Amino acid sequence: MDLKITMKYINDEKFQLINQTDNGLNVDMYSQNKKENQSPMELLLSALTSCAAVEIVSMIKKRRRNFKNIEAISNGIRAETTPKYFKNIDIKYLIYSNDLKIEEAERFISLSLNKYCSVGASLRKDTTVNHSFEILRD
Asked: What's the rounded Cα separation, in Å, for the pair 125 and 128?
């Protein structure tokens, strides 16, 4: 499945991203006191957190466990030099269920982050990033 994103310039620190079904999202690199949207790295952390959550919920429901809600708190520690990639990511999931066992939760979260979540798999060192460009002139 190919994914396509169209990006539009708003200003030097803000861009609009639009997917194939015309859903839009703004991204900015403003300082914390001017922040209006998530930054690209915040989006990556959000994507990992939510991608794994989808898988966790699916596994809980497939095991016919009572599921009410899931929440998470994520923290990413970045390298101090460019590129400021994530050196470490900690995610704490809060799962609301009356009958989910501790061992099951541990297994579901581990499988989600390490096997099933495509965002997590994309963070691995063996990910190849290809690029191309086109220069358009007025």
From this structure: 8
What DSSP letter does each residue of 64-125 carry, written as one string?
A: T----EEEEEEEEEE-SSSS--EEEEEEEEEEE-SS--HHHHHHHHHHIIIII-HHHHHTST
Per-residue pLDDT tens digits for 13-56: 999 999 999 999 999 999 999 999 999 999 999 999 999 999 99
Structural domain for 31, as ranges: 1-37
Looking at the structure, do residues 43 and 16 belong to the same domain, yes or no? no
Q: What is the pTM of this model?
A: 0.86
Based on the domain organization, do 52 and 111 belong to the same domain? yes
Task: Please report whether residue 113 resides in a domain.
Answer: yes
**70-97 tens-digit pLDDT:** 999 998 888 899 988 888 888 999 999 9
Is 127 within the bounds of a domain? no
